[in-house]
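Section 5: illustrative case.
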């Protein structure tokens, strides 16, 4: 599902026009990005949690050149689905 598909589905289910739905979805996604970028977890009940996690510095291998490369510590975004989300995926 693409963002356009999501906008169409939400617009159809709510009866709101697509341009308004697009603006709402863009604002929500922007707020989630800003919160996670500011180290604030985002809890969406029934869906899951977006969070920041710090990855430690590590030594990696460049196989093509047969050398070692030091990967600096960096942040990554994580998502943990809620139990309701996980249970919906079970068959």
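Designed sequence:
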């Amino acid at each position: 599902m693409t963002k356009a598909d999501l906008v169409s589905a939400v617009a159809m289910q709510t009866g709101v026009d697509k341009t308004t739905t697009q603006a709402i979805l863009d604002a929500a996604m922007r707020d989630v990005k800003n919160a996670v970028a500011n180290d604030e977890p985002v809890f969406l009940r029934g869906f899951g949690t977006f969070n920041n996690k710090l990855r430690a510095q590590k030594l990696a291998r460049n196989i093509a050149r047969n050398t070692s490369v030091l990967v600096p510590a960096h942040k990554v975004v994580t998502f943990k689905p809620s139990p309701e989300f996980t249970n919906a995926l079970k068959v």
